[in-house]
Amino acid sequence: MVLKDILFISGQGGLFKYISQGRNSVIVESLSDQKRTTISATTKISMLEDISVFSENDDIPLREVFRKIQEKESGGAAIPHKSPDAELKKYFAQVLPDYDKDRVYVSDIRKVVQWYNTLRELGITDFEPPAEEAAEGEAAETEVNDADKAETAPDDAPDMSENQ
Asked: 72, 91, 67, 95: which is closest to 80 by C-alpha?
């Protein structure tokens, strides 16, 4: 199971797996008890794949945050999500030193830690980007490197921009 199939539904506890889409609803299955339910299409539903955490520089995808927690804990569980606020903030700062402390609330940290522990307990521990996304990133990096090479061409190189 990949993160794009796992949903967070506002107002519902826990995480859900996407099953199907109905006419005006979405059919989901709770990851905790495997019960299927229908959720109105007007309910705020977020795929874990689309969630990111604010940082001082760029937003960090949730999968990357999970990967950093996994590295810190050597694949083990994170601290309990019901830990005191100060302890959660300290832990999150160790995992993600540059997270935006003004825009990331303790309630957000609790969710991230709880979701990580839930996914780990269910055996969902592959937080690598999907193959096509990784390939796109490599292609974009190659284009940037090619552009850098073009910009650093020697000054005595012939000018190929005009037809002579």
From this structure: 91
pLDDT tens for 24-49 read 899 999 998 899 999 998 899 999 89
**Domains of the chain by start residue, with CATH:** 3-48 (2.30.30.730), 51-121 (1.10.10.1650)
Q: What strands, in cross-sheet order, belong to the sheet with 45-47?
A: 36-40, 25-30, 15-21, 6-9, 45-47
Residue type, 149: K
Task: Report the distance separating Cα 116 and Cα 47, nearest Å.
Answer: 14
- Name the pTM for this structure: 0.74
Cα distances (Å, whole numbers) of residue 107 to 70, 89, 93, 112, 114: 20, 10, 15, 9, 10
